[in-house]
Specification:
With 259 residues, this protein is α/β, with parallel strands linked by helices. It has one domain: TIM Barrel. The chain has ten helices and twelve strands. The chain has helices spanning 32-41, 63-72, 86-94, 104-108, 111-120, 159-169, 190-197, 213-221, 232-235, 241-250; strands at residues 5-13, 16-21, 24-30, 47-51, 77-80, 99-102, 125-133, 144-148, 153-158, 173-177, 204-207, 227-230. The chain has an eight-stranded parallel beta barrel, surrounded by six helices. α3 (86-94) links the parallel β5 and β6 (99-102). It is globular.
Length: 259
């Protein structure tokens, strides 16, 4: 049985890891390089870095930061935010990242998914999606609408239809970040995660809402996720990755152990 992956998320703004609730009220937490090393040595399976203001500020991602991360950790990591086309994808991958996450760009230019998969391989192309609950089932049969620009803009796209289309275009993985759950620590949006995970054939990563190891147990069992992104629960020091994996193992969920 494939092990479930635990992926710390480092939201970066001005070279500082930051965290808020639904991208509001952010507080700076530390240096991304130092935190990457700590989490890598702590037993995480992958890391993901989001430059959370690059797209809004219309600037490229911090490539030097990507290079610095690649020099000090030895696990796969993905990078998102500020990706504007194939050249930026190539720069990120050459700097040492294994995957590129695209979100707003993919919605505005879906062909970039196919182009990226063709040039770099679909295993490198991650679709990030930020769905919000929308009860207008005539327009959104899944019950969820895709947002972009850090939750700032609604798109009129149904979340499930968009996930399926992205897979057809060549996305090798889909990160489902619930707008409603993001940063709340109240648990993952299980219905949303399960809806996507059971209707696509690529790995689905749950994101948004982790507040305890039990939430990860639920998203792996009930939500059918292949991996889970965590942030606040380890950034605060309340839990370590080792503690989370131990609880998952006790619940019968296969995880890669460092010890």
């Amino acid at each position: 049985m494939l092990t479930k992956r635990i992926i710390p998320c480092l939201d970066v703004r001005n070279r500082k890891v930051t965290k808020g609730v639904r991208f509001q009220g952010n507080v700076d937490l530390g240096d991304p390089i130092e935190m990457a090393v700590a989490y890598s040595e702590g037993g995480c399976d992958e890391l993901v870095f989001y430059d959370i203001t690059a797209s809004a500020e219309n600037r490229p991602i911090d490539i030097e930061m990507v290079r610095e991360v690649a020099r000090v950790i030895h696990i796969p990591f993905a990078v998102g935010g500020g990706i504007r086309g194939l050249d930026d994808m190539q720069a990120v991958l050459l700097a040492g990242a294994e995957k590129v996450s695209i979100n707003s760009l993919a919605v505005e230019n879906p062909s970039i998914i196919a182009e990226g998969a063709r040039v770099f391989g679909r295993q490198c192309i991650v679709l990030g999606m930020d769905p919000v609950a929308n009860p207008d089932f005539r327009r959104f049969p899944s019950g969820y609408e895709v947002t972009i620009r850090g939750f700032r803009q609604r798109t009129g796209l149904d979340a499930l239809e968009w996930a399926k289309r992205a897979e057809d275009l060549g996305a090798g993985e889909i990160v489902v970040n619930s707008v409603d759950a993001d940063g709340t620590r109240g648990g993952y949006e299980l219905n949303l995660t399960r809806l996507i995970a059971t209707n696509v054939g690529v790995p689905v990563v749950a994101s948004g809402g982790a507040g305890s190891p039990q939430h990860l147990i639920e998203v792996f069992t009930e939500g059918k996720a292949d991996a889970a992104i965590i942030a606040s629960i380890i950034h605060t020091g309340e839990y370590t990755i080792a503690q989370i994996k131990e609880e998952l193992s006790k619940a019968g969920i296969p995880v890669r152990k460092k010890w």
